[in-house]
Amino acid sequence: MRFDRSYCTLLLVLGLLGAGVSGCQKSASPSGQAGSNTNQTVIAVIPKGTANSYWLGVKAGAEAAGREHGVKIDFDGPKLETDITGQINLVEDKINAGVKGIVLAACDTHALLRPVEDALRRGIPVVTIDSGLDPKEDPSYCYIATNNEEGGKKAADALAAAIGQKGKVGILGFLQGAASNDDRLKGFTEEIRKYPGITVVTTLYDDSDTGKAVNQTANMLTAHPDLNGIFAANQPGGVGAANYLRQSGLVGKVKIVAFDASDDEINDLKQGIIQALIVQNPYQMGYQGVIEVLNALAKKPAPQPRFIDSGVTVVTQQNINDPQIQRLLHPGSS
């Protein structure tokens, strides 16, 4: 009887050990099967740069769409928006890594054509956002952006109002050849001509660098000490121009209208250093960019027209506390 009990106990122990081994084998699934993320769809989101907080809005929107649809977002871009070669290499790297789609804000309208065409030849759809490709040659699925010409026109109207529709103004662009820069400046210069009392006396560029924007603002005001207003075409320009006015005691004497809505720009608006912000919707660009890549992967027809306007809003001290403006400025908040 004792032998039988010991024998049964031994069989029970061996059975439990076998079950344990079997359980361990089940949890270690082979690569690419259950328990592994190797088959998850990866969409690369490649901004023009990563140094400015504006692009964090794009990242937040893209990641929200990724969570909703179970895809992985690979957000990666050159640090500086002037690094065209770096962005080209990055697009090629993502192609070779096997991403399923690309959302791209092009540093240059022409230079990024070839890598986009390379992606399409490999069956990887590309959606452009913020800054697109040459419209005469653009092969991307669609283009999601601010109507930058319209934004430039709204900036001109806001600056004209701030300076009483008379005086001298300067333009602080960021990068010639970038579609968003060129369109904003085109819209601004066309609209400002409607005000015969206003003269554009200079156009300088800051390469999307806040420090350089400070220096370029100093150069503007050294050459034109009677300058009345500045149009800054993006976030670094707005922050840099405001910093220079603060440092030089010119707040209120020179008016600023700037694109974008970083924390610094919002604070400068509240303090009266900046008179108006031309606010885009980078969150929507990132979110819709991912959605359109998924539509392309599902073989859905491209939207018609191919340009999707993500919207632009003029924000001033008078409307900054409106609920809809607060949602635009802080899209991640409830």
Automatic annotation (TrEMBL):
<dbReference type="InterPro" id="IPR025997">
    <property type="entry name" value="SBP_2_dom"/>
</dbReference>
<feature type="domain" description="Periplasmic binding protein">
    <location>
        <begin position="43"/>
        <end position="299"/>
    </location>
</feature>
<dbReference type="InterPro" id="IPR028082">
    <property type="entry name" value="Peripla_BP_I"/>
</dbReference>
<dbReference type="GO" id="GO:0030313">
    <property type="term" value="C:cell envelope"/>
</dbReference>
<comment type="similarity">
    <text>Belongs to the bacterial solute-binding protein 2 family.</text>
</comment>
<dbReference type="Pfam" id="PF13407">
    <property type="entry name" value="Peripla_BP_4"/>
</dbReference>
<dbReference type="GO" id="GO:0030246">
    <property type="term" value="F:carbohydrate binding"/>
</dbReference>
<keyword id="KW-0732">Signal</keyword>
<protein>
    <submittedName>
        <fullName>Monosaccharide ABC transporter substrate-binding protein, CUT2 family (TC 3.A.1.2.-)</fullName>
    </submittedName>
</protein>
